[in-house]
Design a protein that fits this description.
The chain is an alpha/beta fold. About 50% of the residues lie in helices and about 10% in strands. The chain has a seven-stranded parallel β-sheet with strand order 3-2-4-1-5-6-7, sandwiched between helices.
Amino acid sequence: MSEGSKGSSLAFGQVVIGPPGSGKTTYCHGMQEFMGRIGRKVTVVNLDPANEVMPYQCAVDIAELITLPDAMENLKLGPNGGLIYCMEYLEANFDWLQEKLAAFRGHYYLFDCPGQVELYTHHDALKNVFAQLAKWNFRLAAVHLVDSHYCTDPGKFISVLCTSLSTMLHVELPHVNVLSKMDLIEQYGKLAFNLDYYTEVLDLSYLVDHLASDPFFRNYRRLNEKLVEVIEDYSLVSFVPLNIQDKESMRQVMQAVDKANGYSFGDQEHRSLEALMSAAVGADFHFTSTLAVQEKYVQSQDKAVEEEVMDL
């Protein structure tokens, strides 16, 4: 795994990013178990110095190098400043990371990353870590988790789209945006549009019109129109829905990530031509997945309405 070594074998993996509470650690745990069941050797790397409780089997832990409480106490920093310092410290100690990862050659890597949004939108430390991994022949995809409850609030959803777009442009990795906690979406309230509107990020002018019905957002219509124009001009953001409890949903997210980082076409799994073509051809699984989640959501909404009618 020497730097710039062309002859060394490729290593594949995911960097799991997203805001606090989006389910990154739960995702790593679920994906580790799921991939293990299909025979893939998985190594989970914890890069979050604030992560004290890890349900997964952690092979490499940044806590061996530095922890957030130590950085805060010794340098008199707050949580945000401490996290940034920890990532800069990791960047300055690439040799430690390289030595730790070298012990797991031939494995598939899941990098559990911190939840501070600034690290993915404009700070360079983690971006430089990912770039260094690429020099070590890692083929990574960024899995950006977003809590699905933001879909129930048009204003927050536009904010999420802006953050996702900014992250995609800054991190500079193949990117898969994931709407997490889809099994809980019916608890968050009624969606203004069908679920595929949010996963495919369809005509956002309808979302602006919906916002305009709110007296508060009516004054900011022009601003929201411009934000929406930026998102649509790039035309990069879409989402894959995820229910961590559903094996089919996990498989579909895994397939999307495998296509993004090139694992489907790598030399670690000798697939038949038919399997290779099915991975390369269309993304019909994404549409099917969205339909399945939408059907469950509509059924739960219909049941709630029926219960209200019965109460009357």
